[in-house]
Amino acid sequence: MNLFPHVDWSRNASIYEVNVRQYTPEGTLTAMATHLPRLQKMGVSILWFMPIQPIGLLMRKGTLGSYYAIRDYTAVNPEFGTMADFCALVQQAHALGMKVILDWVANHTAWDHVWTQQHPEWYLKNAQGDIHSYLYDNGTEIEDWSDVCGLDYQQPALWPAMTEAMLYWLREADVDGFRCDVAGLLPTLFWEQARTQMEQIKPVFMLAEWADPGLHAKAFDMTYDWSLYEVLKKIARGEGDARDLHTYLEQPEKLYPADAYRMTFTANHDTNSWHGHDGAQYGSAFRAMAVLAATLPGMPLVYSGQESGLNKQLQFFEKDAIDWGTYEHADFYAGLLALKKTHPALQNGATGGPVDIMDTGHTGVFRFQRVRDGRRIQVTVNLTGQSQTLPEGTMLAGWAWEMVQGSL
Description:
- By secondary structure, the chain is α/β, with parallel strands linked by helices.
- It has a single domain, classed as TIM Barrel, CATH 3.20.20.
- Helix content is 28%, strand content 20%.
- It has helices at residues 20-23, 29-33, 36-42, 83-95, 115-118, 158-173, 188-199, 226-236, 242-250, 269-274, 278-282, 286-295, 330-342; strands at 15-18, 46-49, 99-104, 108-110, 133-137, 142-150, 177-180, 205-208, 222-224, 261-264, 299-303, 355-358, 365-372, 375-382, 388-389, 395-396, 401-407.
- The chain has an eight-stranded parallel beta barrel with strand order 1-2-3-7-8-9-10-11.
- Strand 15 (388-389) and strand 16 form a beta hairpin.
- It starts with 14 loop residues before the first strand and ends with a strand.
């Protein structure tokens, strides 16, 4: 089997998304850094920071604007602190054994990015020849992203300029890679050549916000597993059962390379702010669904605040600090992430164990096992809110789970 050249540290990694603005009352990088030892203790491997660059003022949404309306690719948003603050945070994360990837928005810029004046030819134009707000086809409707304007990747000079901006963060801040916003809207060749140049500086980890097997050929280590997310929501609402998980596993919508990583999740910044918080999406099924996201093939994501029960939708364009409360799910996640880190069958990509679905006799309980290097893990999850009888005659409480480990 041909393995993708993933960095070694990614094989048993989990990922954690950091929303700096809402993470602390201060909303700064320095304040967020005080949480790094806690996240290390929880078992986080990779920290994904939402964009930290200055946000456009022109056509800004809300009071503070969207992180994804970037005004300067090679600077830090004063709202969050300074470049020195970010470099210090990265160094601290590295000292604690964690890696840092930065959200990268290459598809569009803020209206007041300097390129709109210096290089208007790099932007998409309307029928009148004017730069216009970016129009995004989400498959259902055309969204008008009024606070940003789209870049035109048919312009060859744009490629080295954007690539050099990415390389800046490798050289100056020692980041370990990027999460690339709406990656499929750009030419795959752009990402491939950018990665080639990054690898000349250091090995990197690349996450695409997209779901396309072709992105895994040379450019990206990991893409979003939206399909599993939809199945987990369906089951939590009482509208799905074990048959949906069977279909998901046995009839994938697209054929991904054997060593492609998929990011599994119950929430991220988009789902939380625009579609609903964990309480609304999952209710009492939350932990059961998180168990599936952490033990089925893929790299599990934890979004900022989920370890404390993120039962509110964080505002996107305003200050709306997370209420950390008692960290009610921190030990739960620590157990899952430790298992991810230590069990060979749960490794990412082709080095993990395949899923063997086991018959439970009814659709309310899902059981599977994964085996690797002579070690086995069997996971059983009750997909209902009622107690269910397992094949061995014991009872499993509503939304409960069992994990059994052993050797072959």
